Amino acid sequence: NTDIESVWSAFKNAVFESSCERLGYVKRKHQDWFASNDPNISPLLGNIHMCHCQWMSNKNNATKCNELKKVRNTCQSQLRQMKQIWWQKKAQELQDAVDRCDSRSIYQNLKGVLGPVSGGSIPILLTEGNLLTDEKEIMKC
Questions:
Q1: Which has more pLDDT, 137 or 103?
Q2: Complete DSSP assignment for 1-56
Q3: How far apart are CA 44 and CA 20, in angstroms?
C-alpha cells in the first residue's frame, strides 16, 4: 500500500514539475499599478511560491511555516508601497493637468485610473409605471 502511494506521489510530482517547467504558470490581467510594476513584483511572488511549495512538502515544519509568513508579510508591505507610489504618481499627473487647465489630459488620466466605462443601456419608465431594462425591449420602443 505504501509502495503504491510512493509511486503515485513520485509520478504526480514529476508530472507537475515538468508541466510547470514546460508550460509555466497562468498570467492573469491585473490592475494598472500591478502591471506597471510587474518586473519588480514577479520575483516577490516567485519567492512566496517557492516558500509555499517548501512548506507544502512538509507542513509539520514550523520554521518553514514561519518563513512563509515572514515572506508573505514582506511581500505584502512592498506591494502596498508600490501601489501607494503608483497612486501618488497618478494623482500628481492629474494635478499637473488640472494646473495646466488641460481637460484632455484630465479625462485621459481619469480614464486610465477608472478604466473604460461600460456602455450599458438606461432603463425606460413605461406609462404603466414599470421599468423596462431588457435591451431588446428598449430597442423596440
A1: 103
A2: -HHHHHHHHHHHHHHHHHHHHHH--------HHHHHTHHHHHHHHHHHHHHHHHHH
A3: 18
- What rounded mean pLDDT belongs to the chain? 84
C-alpha cell belonging to residue 91: 494623482
Question: In the prediction, which pLDDT does 74 show?
Answer: 94
Task: Quickly list DSSP for 74-133.
Answer: HHHHHHHHHHHHHHHHHHHHHHHHHHTT-HHHHHHHHHHHH-PPP-PPPPEE-TTS-EE-
Q: Residue 34: which of 92, 75, 74 has the closest Cα? A: 75
At which residue does the C-alpha cell 466605462 appear?
117
* List of residues 6+ apart from 132 with CB closer than 8 A: 123, 124, 125, 126, 138, 141
* Confidence grade of residue 111 (pLDDT, cut at 50, 70, 90): confident
The answer, as to whether pTM is greater than 0.70, is: no
Share of the chain above pLDDT 90, in %: 36
Sign of CA pseudo-dihedral 27, 29, 32, 34: negative
73-94 residue pLDDT tens: 999 999 899 889 988 998 999 9
